[in-house]
Amino acid sequence: MMKAANKQNPQNVFSWFGGMWSSRPLFSTGMALIVMIVLQTLALGFNFDSFGSWFSTWWQNWINILRNNSGIGIIALGMTFVIISGGIDLAVGSTLVAVGAVVMVLVDTGPMGILLRLGITGTPAILISIVVAIILGTLLGQLTGLLITRGKLPPFIATLGTMKIFRSVTQHFMTGYTPAVPKDFLNIASLNVGGQLLMPIIYWIIAAGVLYIVFTRTTFGRQAIAIGSNERATRLSGVNVARIKTRIYALMGLLVSLSAILQVARIGSMDYANAGSGYEMDAISAVIVGGTSMSGGKGSIVGTVLGTLIIAVMNNLLNLLGVPPFLREAFKGVIVIGAVLLQKKENNA
Amino acid sequence: MIVEMRGIWKAFGANVVLKDVSFAVRGGEICALLGENGAGKSTLMNILGGVLPPDSGQIELDGKPVVFHNPAESLHAGIGFIHQELNLINDLAVYENMFIGRELKQKNGLLDAKRMIQETQQVFDRLDLKLDPRAMVRDLDASYKQIVEIARALMMNASIIIMDEPTSSLTDPEIERVFEMMRALREHGVGIVFISHKLREVMQICDRYAILRDGKMVAEGSVSEVTTDDLARFMVGHDIRTMALQRQHETAHEVLRAENLSDHKFFHNISFSVRAGEVLGITGLLGDGRSELFQAIIGAGSDYSGQVYFEGKPIKVRSTTQAVDYGIGYLPRNRKENGIIKDMSILENGSIVTWPRLARFGFIDRLRQNLEFDAQVTGLRIKLERKTDLITNLSGGNQQKVVLAKWLSTRPRLLILDNPTQGVDVGAKEEIYDIILDLADEGVAVVVLSSEAQEIIRVCDRALVMYHGALQGEVSGETMNEHDIMRLATGATLN
Description:
Chain A is 76% helix and 0% strand. Chain A has a domain of 205 residues. The longest helix of chain A has 34 residues. In chain A, 47% of the residues are buried. The radius of gyration of chain A is 22 Å and the shape is globular. Chain B folds into two domains: 191 residues, P-loop containing nucleotide triphosphate hydrolases (Rossmann fold, 3-Layer(aba) Sandwich); 236 residues, P-loop containing nucleotide triphosphate hydrolases (Rossmann fold), CATH 3.40.50.300. Helices cover 34% and strands 25% of the residues of chain B. In chain B, strands 6-7-8-3-9-10 form a six-stranded mixed beta sheet, with helices on both faces. Chain B has a six-stranded mixed beta sheet with strand order 16-19-20-13-21-22, sandwiched between helices. In chain B, a hairpin with a 2-residue loop joins strand 14 and strand 15. Chain B starts with a strand and ends in a 6-residue tail after the last helix. At the A-B interface, helix 11 and helix 12 of A face helix 10, helix 11 and strand 18 of B.
């Protein structure tokens, strides 16, 4: 009865808020982000000569946040597909290292560079290495997908295995070998756009836009959600569940390879032991905070972008507040748990 | 010992399942409790077993009134309830299962395996049972599992044992073994309530029978004075009128023909055919294998031997995707588990099968998706507020119509409907029957799988009755009646 009365009384701010909270899946996520941004803005302080100098600091801070999180943001987009279809992918960090290593070996300007030895240099070399990287990432994802669908392995097990394999093999072959990445390749990430290093952010925005459309408009996207919600009913509706699942992991691999190219281009080198480690958990956290259900069937691309931003802004906030680095992971944990608790409330309302 | 239940009433919400039921069983007899699905047998026994409280009425043990609040109290009073799904743990030994939850311990707190094995052996000896208490339950066949459950009940001094369809998953020799055990128990003065659908078994093993129909006890007596015919008639009732809805269907060419299909597990040697414009019913009782048969045919079940012909061509469907391409639709049983996708909208649930056909370069054509679904909503008279709402907002009947809509929009030439009116109200049921008949008039070959004989009679031109994975017989046209169907479904033959 209370609820019905509230609905007829929209001028009551609290009931409007409650209604939105319980009826819009992304409302609480958006609210959390806004609160986070307000706190972050306060933490940045207003101790500046003019509004102009405050704003440029604030803006610069934002660009840094977005750029630093574009790599994980792109991976989280793919992870949304994986998780919404009821799966999980622990191998994203290792795939990133493997693909990154191959890219560097290809474009290496030192004596070991593969393309150089084939007589290919400059822009063609860069284009070829990008294409190879994308194909490789997609194939590695496809392989994981086949292990899960043909081999009937639980996704957790299959990707736990490939996680170990990909990184270990990469480390073995890359020991004592430091490829030199040509300056032109670095332009992929560091080309100046309006006086700013915006390229990584642009890639992230494009990827998010494309995947949003794939998610909402295509047969593939809708079937992925259907599988996560009720795999049996989806199969009985004539959907080739194995094929869709394999494609989901291939898409994940493709996005990881984009992220790998971006990382190589930004840093120009790669630490094979540590690069990308923890990415799987960061991506999963972003997806979960963005409201996607671990058991599949529920979630969205927009949510994942918001989730990535929440974690990113929180990191920035902790940084601004001078919280000791070791404590920051704890806050991430709190955010993940808190987000899921909030979403539980929504579902029960 | 004698257990008497008197004047038991029980309702779930507005649905009264037991109406003034009285029932008694004494030590040293086997009493069959019979009735169709939903007649109230399980509810009555759940009350006796302490699983459910009655709304009113009383239970007396040897003349003393008792109240059971939970299964433990009932068991303590000497009533053992062996459920259809056995409560054994496969990964433990027999003796460990016998003592689960009340393990014997040594003084130091460790388990006393020796004493548990000994006591188990004693019970087995008393029953003349050659079974090693140390054997793993996993390695036992289904009948011995059943027997271990019985032995467990006896070990706890049960003098009345309720067995809920104990033979439904057993083979014939296994059934005989369980029956021997039951006879031995009768000799020892134990009373047994035997719930079953299989009238032949009832005639074979039981002393008395009690029949529930629509929550009322309609017949009781001594088995030696009745025939399976009589029992089948009591279960169905004389007074149920079933108007057949069938019309003169113009049947055309053969759409589906099956020859000697066997999967060596759920169905054996099945041959049949169905023509365009025909409504073929397939019926039987729990465990008859009809769902497994048709899931195998559409590529969603087990592998099979034998040959399927679709419109004259030999085919073997390997996936549901292929089935859709052939023009075969399958509306599954258990809508909640197999039919609806609960996180998706009404529109998406009603169009998922046709997405690939509606798509250009992978993009779903939303305009056509909406138009096609709107046509189905009108055609099937689906009542909904907004088609973007979640499917779970609809009533059972409307949900079922949406599931039906997704198949109708593929324009199937063969439509298989498994329990199409499960969990829908009476009005929606009639509407679904009308839809089925309209489809047949349009030239679709329709197969209706149902355990409700009345439903089969109402909509089908003819019906095949399955028993334990085999075709037991066929009934058709004017001569279809519940009595014959029930006889065939319980393993008897027509004259």
